[in-house]
């Protein structure tokens, strides 16, 4: 995968993360509180994993000991944190060369296991991981009477990739 494609996918991620959080914030006050909490836990898990992989790819410590945090941030907090994290990825990827994308990176998984992946594979994992959990979040949004955002690349490319 080339750098420009990765940047487009990261911009898509930034947009759909924001749309998902906006939808969560717009749910009726009568929506199931437990399911709303689960939505925020899922979105926070995406954020934590994004932060872990960002640190791993850059060779820096991340400080996380689990794949989620004990506290659950608000949707407003996640909007800021997730956008900043993805913006960091966009800056990072924009500066990479094709050789950088193929670089093998050794790191430790949160469970202590050793990992070794190419940078491009780490980026792809991060992108696909978030998509998986946003899908579950969309299902919960539907169960709470909301309409999940269209989490599809085609909508982003048509309407938001300017």
Automatic annotation (TrEMBL):
Transmembrane segments: none annotated. It comes from the Bacteria. Keywords: Metal-binding. InterPro entries: DinB, DinB/YfiT-like. Pfam families: DinB (PF05163). Signal peptide: none annotated. Gene3D superfamilies: dinb family like domain (1.20.120.450). Belongs to the DinB family. This is Diguanylate cyclase. It comes from Pantoea anthophila.
């Amino acid at each position: 995968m080339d750098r420009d494609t990765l940047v487009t996918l990261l911009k898509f991620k930034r947009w759909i993360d924001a749309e998902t959080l906006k939808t969560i914030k717009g749910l009726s006050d009568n929506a199931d509180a437990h399911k709303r909490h689960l939505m925020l836990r899922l979105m926070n898990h995406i954020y934590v994993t994004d932060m872990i992989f960002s640190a791993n790819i850059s060779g820096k410590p991340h400080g996380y000991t689990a794949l989620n945090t004990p506290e659950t941030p608000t949707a407003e907090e996640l909007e800021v944190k997730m956008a900043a994290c993805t913006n960091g990825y966009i800056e990072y990827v924009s500066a990479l060369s094709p050789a950088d994308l193929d670089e093998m990176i050794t790191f430790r998984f949160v469970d202590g296991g050793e990992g070794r992946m190419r940078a491009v594979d780490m980026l792809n994992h991060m992108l696909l991981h978030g998509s998986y959990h946003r899908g579950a979040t969309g299902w919960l949004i539907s169960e709470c009477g909301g309409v999940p955002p269209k989490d599809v690349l085609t909508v982003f490319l048509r309407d938001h990739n300017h």
